[in-house]
Automatic annotation (TrEMBL):
GO CC, one annotated term: cytoplasm
Family: Belongs to the SHQ1 family.
Coiled-coil regions listed in the entry: none
The species this protein was found in: Rodentolepis nana (Dwarf tapeworm)
PANTHER family: PROTEIN SHQ1 HOMOLOG
Domain CS: 1-88
The protein's name: Protein SHQ1 homolog
Pfam families for this protein: SHQ1, SHQ1-like_CS
A single GO molecular function term of this UniProt record: unfolded protein binding
Length: 410
């Protein structure tokens, strides 16, 4: 059976579901709601999903509109005026078969209880990072390579291991060399050391004085800042990816770090996942401004180069390290290098975290980043390394944490 592409929207009194079913045999179709679970079948399509809120289940309160392979189902809300949150996060609503017998060790699929459990926690966004010198990092890297058995994690939630040893082609696109053998807490020191050799002061000063170069990027409007109620416009490609990833298992997440902990091990803290997300959003928003909202063939390179997460597999210990890394890399590598532009990008991300539909916009940005990286030669492995996990995780993450992060980031 095929899973149809679908989207959800609402009015004050109704929940609206749009289904793309061009191949459907509607004479054999069935649409049923039972215990807030929707069942739809029209061969060859089948969909089972949990509804985002309570609607009337009887046929008298459901209307259908059919037009050229599209089916619109209009369901009356049980409580008129109730607002259903996060309608763009369609993967979280889909009910998929559980394959417990084939589930890999160390992999779990998060459920709705994850959000409630994490929402009560406050993170220490300004925790003290580890203090390691560049010489220590280089020495440890050489030692690990010599021994040949010590490997260190990277990727979403520090859950990947040994990927670059098996795929030497993927290693070529990283700025971090010998990625499998460099400890996570020492990558930042190596990243900053490499940065010093690439900063070009004449380029920076030229962009500072030639205001016309940076003016279009500074004047570019950002869609989530114009309207606090606006929703992103997901394409069919986006919805297809969300449908495919509905069965994607998340790795076992690290524990939730207490706000009382002053020194944090980034590899063993869930806070690092949020910090990596901020890094990705900064890089994405920078490219959005520079390309004036029309991402181009070089956008994948720009986002990868500005992001410490993507270029150096950094696992950040605190928020100030994320912001510092963004400023340093955005003023060193891309075509436009301007301090005020970086400040505007930070304000944009602050507005994104503040947005009423923050998770929807973040999900949209992650899907766009994934597409741009897949399109750029050699960057396909970032989907497995980060983006697929982030796309699934953001739909199940705690809304409360984003408000706390906003306060710290602002």
């Amino acid at each position: 059976m095929l899973t149809p592409l679908f989207s959800l929207s609402q009015t004050n009194d109704e929940l609206i579901m749009d289904l793309r079913i061009p191949l459907a045999d509607l004479s054999l179709s069935e649409f049923l709601i039972e215990d807030d679970t929707l069942y739809f079948t029209a061969p060859p399509y089948y969909l089972k999903m949990k509804l985002p809120g309570s609607v009337y289940e009887d046929e008298d309160h459901i209307k259908f509109e059919i037009d050229s392979g599209n089916l619109k189902a209009i369901m009356a809300k049980t409580n008129p005026g109730e607002h259903f949150n996060d309608l763009d996060l369609i993967s979280r609503f889909m009910v998929t078969p559980k394959a417990n017998n084939t589930q890999k060790v160390g992999i779990q699929i998060l459920d709705a209880s994850e959000e409630a459990a994490e929402g009560a926690t406050e993170y220490n966004w300004f925790a003290v990072p580890f203090d390691h010198t560049v010489s220590d990092a280089v020495e440890d890297c050489e030692t690990a390579i010599g021994i040949g058995v010590i490997k260190y994690p990277y990727g979403f939630a520090a859950s990947k291991l040994g990927l670059f040893e098996k795929n030497s082609e993927a290693q070529l696109v990283l700025d971090l060399k010998y990625a499998d053998f460099v400890p996570p807490h020492k990558r930042h020191a190596l990243q900053r050391e490499a940065l010093r050799g690439h900063f070009y002061k004449d380029h920076y000063m030229a962009d500072y004085f030639e205001k016309e170069v940076v003016a279009p990027a500074m004047d570019q409007s950002i869609p989530w800042t114009a309207n606090q109620q606006a929703r992103p416009e997901f394409t069919d490609d986006h919805r297809h990816r969300l449908t495919v990833l509905a069965t994607h298992p998340l790795p076992l997440l690290p524990p939730i770090q207490s706000s009382d902990d002053e020194i944090v091990d980034p590899c063993n803290s869930r806070m690092s996942i949020y910090l990596g997300l901020v890094d990705l959003l900064l890089a994405y928003t920078y490219d959005y401004r520079v390309t004036m909202g029309e991402h181009n063939c070089e956008s994948g390179w720009t986002i990868k180069k500005v992001s410490g997460t993507l270029s150096w597999l950094e696992i950040f210990p605190n928020l100030q390290t994320v912001v510092l890394t963004f400023y340093e890399r955005a003023l060193t590598y891309p075509l436009i290098r301007n301090f005020e532009l970086c400040r505007s990008v930070c304000c944009d991300v602050t507005a994104l975290l503040l947005h009423e539909n923050a998770k929807g916009w973040i999900l949209f940005a992650l899907l766009e980043i994934r597409h741009m990286l897949i399109e750029y030669p050699g960057y396909y492995f970032y989907a497995e390394l980060y983006l697929d996990d982030y796309i699934v995780w953001i739909q199940k993450s705690a809304r409360f944490v984003f408000h706390i992060l906003l306060i710290a980031f602002g």
